[in-house]
Amino acid sequence: MVSYMPQQVMQADTALLADTVGLPASLSQLLTFDQTDLRNVRRRPAKKRPAKKKVEATTQPHHIVQRGTKIAVKTIDVPSSYKGVSRIRQYDFTHRDVPAAFDGCRIAFVSDIHYKSLLKEQGLKDLSRLLIDQKVDALLLGGDFHEGCQYVPPVMAAMGRVNPPLGIYAVLGNNDYDACYDDIVREMERNNIHLLEHKVDTLKRGGSQILVAGVRNPFRLKENGKSPTLGLSPDDFVILLVHTPDYAEDVPVTNSDLVLAGHTHGGQMTLFGRYAPVINSHYGQRFVSGLAYNSKHIPVITTNGIGTSKVAIRMFAPSEIMIIVLHQLKD
Question: Which pLDDT value is given to residue 52?
Answer without folding.
Answer: 39
